[in-house]
Amino acid sequence: MKGTTLISVILLLLATGCANQTTPTGGPKDEAPPVLISSIPAHNQKNFKGKNIELVFNEEIKLKDPREEILITPSPGKNTKYLARGKKVIIEPEFPWTDSTTYSIAFREGIQDITESNPAEDLRLAFSTGDTIDSLSINGTVALLFSEKIPEKITVALYQSDTFNIFNHTPTYFTKSNKKGQFTLQNLKAGNYYVYAFEDKNKNLKVESKSEKFGYLINPIQTETKTDSIAIKLITVDARALALTSVRHTIGTSLVRFNKSVDSIKVSLPDSQSAIYTFGDNRTELIFYKNFDKADSVQIQILASDSVNQKLDTTVYLKYTETKMASESFKVKEVNESFDPSTKKFSHTLSYNKLLKQINYDSIYIRIDSATRIPVRIKEFEFDTLTHTIKYSTFIDIPADSVPKHSKRKSEKPSLVYSKAALISIENDSSSIIQKEIPIVTEETTGMVTLEIETTEKDYFIEILSSDNKLVQSAKNVKTITFKYLKPQDYKIRVHIDRNKNKRWDPGNFNYKTEPEPILFYKSEEGKYTFPIRANWEVGPLVIRF
């Protein structure tokens, strides 16, 4: 018995000595955030000559992602250390504090208590190594240009030099937006500042346009007089310089690759030579089908531009090699279709991956029902050999009472039909059968919305979108418009202000000092961006102001 008791005591002591420190259990939940008791330096202290920053709180704390959450501007170095010891936080800068400089620290959610991870609320610290504290600020919001959703943790930065480049340089002043898209840059000197914002996924404080959303304002902010909140809209656009990356030759083709999508292209060949060229699977590739003697090497000039109007003027040589082109099947797919009930115009677009040798028009028709077919006409087709697409457009008026209402069989509904082998490729591949149902709608089965436009802008588009941002209908430069024949579902209203009057949205270019054209979304008084349309409903008039 004595031996058993002794072993039990030893085991109890061992268990006690090896126990891990844990958060106490029981009692009321701790919902109070940690409170700052003191700091060195004190908030707004001048002439600080110390090395490290120390903060003392009313309870034990921990750090959460301090390099991400604790923002110090100007930065004392990306390798600055953050330490949590009981109730104390110590910041050890990588580089010494600069003389006669005001520093601002936003702690965001970087300091939390150890019990419930409550972050210290609205904790900021400002101090100066000189005789004055800079006190001016810039505040505003960030948002996505093509969406009503609010992006989080967007880096907002400032620069002052005209030679500063957001793609190559890092800013002195920066902060991050909160969950509402709001930001504040504080403790600034008087002067003019340029502001920009970006995702900074790789945390290098530079804009990586290939993978990061970004936005900027071309005109500077004057901190002496600025009182209104500014707004920065983010876009996704590849702003890298357009470049040629490779040229690969086969027996019958030459494949030219670019580092990004090409928006427009012009090719010049010698007068005595010819070649057919198209885009490849996407607009980063250009395929040349050679039509000259195998012994020749043909020099061509390519002038290309991208979506932000950056240009590339380069020379390429086309030549034969014994390398065979990889064999692939003939693929034809639908790109899009549309039907305007007000004009009865139906359009349908196909794309294909090989050059076409032949189109059998008598194998293409509109089937009204099992007994009625309408043949197509050649003039109703548009061909774009560069993007290898075919667009068919026609006007068709099919009475609604002639359409089976409950049938799920395509053969019983009005459809555009491409029969088998309607398209023949240059390699004698034939296309499979394609059927596209033609939507028949009436006012009784659809709804409408009326808009009244109040604006000083001269050129703009009013667009009706589905809830997943697909364009349904649009109108240009109208003051009052009724969009009819809207299928029962939720819709959005988007405004595109066409500043350069070229009838398309332009993303701007930081290097050319131009901003993206404005995109606005209608927002109701209840704060909603969508509104429902029901069958036989009329919504509005909705007033759109911009």
In short:
The protein is mostly beta strands and 546 residues long.
Q: Which structural traits does this protein have?
A:
Immunoglobulin-like, 2 helices, five-stranded antiparallel β-sheet, mainly beta, 42% strand, 5 domains
Descriptive report:
There is one protein chain. The protein folds into five domains: 36-128, Immunoglobulin-like (Sandwich), CATH 2.60.40; 136-234, Carboxypeptidase-like, regulatory domain (Immunoglobulin-like), CATH 2.60.40; 244-319, Immunoglobulin-like (Sandwich); 332-437, Elongation Factor Tu (Ef-tu), domain 3, CATH 2.40.30; 447-545, Immunoglobulin-like. 4% of the residues lie in helices and 42% in strands. A hairpin with a 5-residue loop joins strand 23 (297-305) and strand 24 (311-319). The longest helix is centred in the N-terminal third of the chain and has 17 residues, at 2-18. Mean pLDDT is 88; it is low at 1-24.
- What is the oligomer described by this structure? single chain
Broad shape: globular
CATH topology of the largest domain: Elongation Factor Tu (Ef-tu), domain 3
Class by SSE composition:
mainly beta
**What is the beta-strand fraction?**
35-45%
CATH architecture of the largest domain: Beta Barrel
Averaged pLDDT: 88
Kindly, what is the distance between the CA atoms of the first and last residues, rounded to a whole number of angstroms?
91 Å
Helical percentage: under 10%
Characterize the main sheet: 5 strands, antiparallel
Count the beta strands. 42
How many helical elements? 2
How many independent structural domains? 5
